[in-house]
Amino acid sequence: MNVVQFTRKPGVGHYSIEGTFSAMRSGLRGVTSLRVLSCPFTSQGVLARIRNIDFARANQGDVNHILGDVHYLALGTRKESTILTIHDCGFAYHRSAIRRLLLRLFWLHLPVRRVSKIIAISEKTKEEILSLTRLAPEKIVVIPDCIDDAFVETPKEFNIVRPKILQIGTRPNKNIVRLAAALRGLSCELHIVGRTTPEIENAVKENGVPHRISVGLSQEELVKAYAECDIVAFASIYEGFGMPIVEGQATGRVVLTSDIEPMKWVAGGAAMLVDPFSVDSIRGGIERLCRDGALRRQLVERGRENVKRYRTEVIAKLYLEVYESVFAEVQMLSGKRGSL
């Protein structure tokens, strides 16, 4: 079985999808050949995307797996041998009516009908796909993202005097403005990882939150950021998954996240859940984590167990099962054609 994994052209700020699948590949067994092919052109403009489709068409394997973001590549690959992973459907809610229409057409409605299987990284994403496309539910398989083995438990005494709070990601959905308001007057330090905006910078300054900002961290530096923090804050208002929750748990840190899906599902009962739309709720959760050592220890212990669901070998096995089922279907179809 020869598998080709298609991914977007590498670029600054593009790490999440690539990191997830890079970790998963080490656990694949039974794949005769695995090629990872990046699109030759950045996904901008009609011509570049047509060339990317032609590239996918010319480089197919027994099984083709589009890893995400460049969903439109399915327009160039064989339907019966193609798998598409969809990480979230945020693009389907674009504020511009015209862009929303185009994105839904070329990133969702056409691609999902041009593949054999769809992999959603959470139940929430599966529900969104179904609500937007009316596909048959059995066409979608839920396989979570896997945690990179670089994230290991690193013991650290909780700093009750001035805890360090780690925030990964800076897009509007990450909810940093409310987080900054929630930290107003608290004795803590906020570490933001990601390129900030004037709105975020104003929020942390106006609320007097001691902070530092890190941009373009290597994986080693990111692992270190988790190890140095006391609390991982991830009060996001929209996600397809929420990997910082798992990365925090894997490092042995207590996690605060949103009481909405998919964050609740990802956290697995091992995080402080708060209302991400309420500054008071976020603040209350942080204050409770700071003062309640028994609760912190309980959540860290639960997190240690929850992380097992996302280990490389577990997720790789699930992907391999999908690869094998699609390959078997391709072989069966080829046999039928050959007998005609």
Describe the structure.
With 340 residues, the chain is an alpha/beta fold. It has two domains: 2-146 and 311-338, Rossmann fold (3-Layer(aba) Sandwich); 164-310, Glycogen Phosphorylase B (Rossmann fold, 3-Layer(aba) Sandwich), CATH 3.40.50.2000. Helix content is 42%, strand content 16%. It has twelve helices and twelve strands. It has helices spanning 16-25, 46-58, 97-112, 123-133, 176-182, 198-206, 219-228, 243-251, 263-267, 279-291, 293-306, 312-338; strands at residues 2-7, 33-38, 63-66, 82-86, 117-120, 140-142, 164-168, 189-193, 211-214, 231-234, 254-258, 272-274. A six-stranded parallel β-sheet has the order 2-1-3-4-5-6. A six-stranded parallel β-sheet has the order 9-8-7-10-11-12, sandwiched between helices. Helix 3 links the parallel strand 4 and strand 5 (117-120). The two termini are 24 Å apart. The model has no long low-confidence stretch (mean pLDDT 93).
Features:
12 helices, globular, six-stranded parallel beta sheet, 340 residues, 42% helix, 12 strands, Rossmann fold, 16% strand
Structural class: alpha/beta
End-to-end distance, in Å?
Answer: 24 Å
Q: For the residues shown, what is the average pLDDT?
A: 93
Largest sheet report: 6 strands, parallel
Q: What count of domains describes the coordinates?
A: 2
The CATH class designation of the largest domain is: Alpha Beta
CATH architecture of the largest domain: 3-Layer(aba) Sandwich
Query: Which regions are unreliable across 5 or more consecutive residues at pLDDT < 50?
Result: none
Number of strands: 12
CATH topology of the largest domain: Rossmann fold
- Give the number of helices: 12
